[in-house]
Amino acid sequence: MAQETLNLEQEVVLVEELGNARVVTLNNPKQLNVISPKVVVLLAANLEKWEKDENAKLVIIKGAGRAFSAGGDLKMFYNGRNSKDSCLEVVYRMYWLCNHIHTYKKTTVALVHGISMGGGASLMAPMKFSVVTEKTVFSTPEASIGFHTDCGFSYMLSRLPGRLGEYLGLTGARLNGKELVAVGLATHFVPLEKLPELEKHLLSLNTGDEAAVGSAIKEFSTDVQIDEESILKKQSIIDECFSKDSVAEIISSFETEAGKEGNGWIVPVLKGLKRSSPTGLKITLRSIREGRKQTLSECLKKEFRITINTLRARISGDVYEGIRALTIDKDNSPKWDPLTLENVEDEQVNLVFEPFEEDFELKVSENEQDRWDGKYEDSAYCHQ
């Protein structure tokens, strides 16, 4: 094991080749292992190499410090706000990578403690085995800052029970490790104190046999019992409110439920909803609902269009205002434009969903023989 590399903080992705196992450590703990352009490039290059290497049979991914990954580097997007398409390359690469993580041919294991949010969670949920702990915190809070549920989450959230996907996407509500297992966004719950021992055991197996790996993880895992106050116990209310046709109707229905005895939990959630970007909420609701009828690749192509159009501020600059309020000035007082849901017209929302010219769409191949084609380097964007 190359122990000496473990202290090189500038190495944002650490890679170890141990027998038939490949271990990836997201290694930017001071920034909660955010996904930077370098992270995306290194992950994609290594995953492609290992899928084609018959000696690589098991891939483990984990995060250094107290987070798995807090998602995309928001400051990077903010700093590029005045330069046209400054972040297009990393966005293209990330969505392309998401497709390969979902469809990876080798056995994959995510060991997830701490924060796993937004795009960071896209490195967890699609794995064949995603192991969470009592310290795991998941959320998709993008709508609150004028963005949308991306990196494949319009596909994943739309397939959760009932209207839970709409609820999580619109409110940014958090799930803990046990809740993630209960809804199927993670496969196993393992107490944090056992995680190092589990990793050591997986490496000692020196195999990628899915049954053997699954059996080994099960030995360390515990059955989950959902707490009575868990949001998963509120499914009937969520289904009732979040099945409404529009964001405005969802909020109105949620307000009605909040007035009933025993529903005090709704009040802070409702407050957060009302503080969120009206544009982000409308786009997110439509994207998740479309996701129910779309394949993974269709969802990723759609999300790519939405992201690029959002970063281009085609209908609103809310994403930059949201990042400013949350991470730059930290005043938590965003000035949304438009300010209200009524002023976000459906015709405007349609614009961010419009397909690009064919050459400028995200290229994800569904053919086995050329599944690693479609890289950014070969796209029309790179040759503009």
Automatic annotation (TrEMBL):
CDD domains: crotonase-like
GO BP of this protein: L-valine catabolic process
Domain of life according to the entry: Eukaryota
Gene3D superfamilies for this protein: 2-enoyl-CoA Hydratase, Chain A, domain 1
Ranges for domain Enoyl-CoA hydratase/isomerase: 22-353
EC number(s) reported in the record: 3.1.2.4
Pathway: Amino-acid degradation; L-valine degradation
MF term (GO), any: 3-hydroxyisobutyryl-CoA hydrolase activity
Substrates-to-products reaction catalysed: 3-hydroxy-2-methylpropanoyl-CoA + H2O = 3-hydroxy-2-methylpropanoate + CoA + H(+)
Pfam families documented for this protein: ECH_2 (PF16113)
Keyword Hydrolase belongs to the record: yes
Keywords: Hydrolase
NCBIfam families xref list: PRK05617.1 (NF004127)
Function text: Hydrolyzes 3-hydroxyisobutyryl-CoA (HIBYL-CoA), a saline catabolite. Has high activity toward isobutyryl-CoA. Could be an isobutyryl-CoA dehydrogenase that functions in valine catabolism.
Family statement: Belongs to the enoyl-CoA hydratase/isomerase family.
Protein's recorded name: 3-hydroxyisobutyryl-CoA hydrolase
Species of the source: Solanum lycopersicum (Tomato)
Name of the gene encoding the protein in the UniProt record: LOC101263879
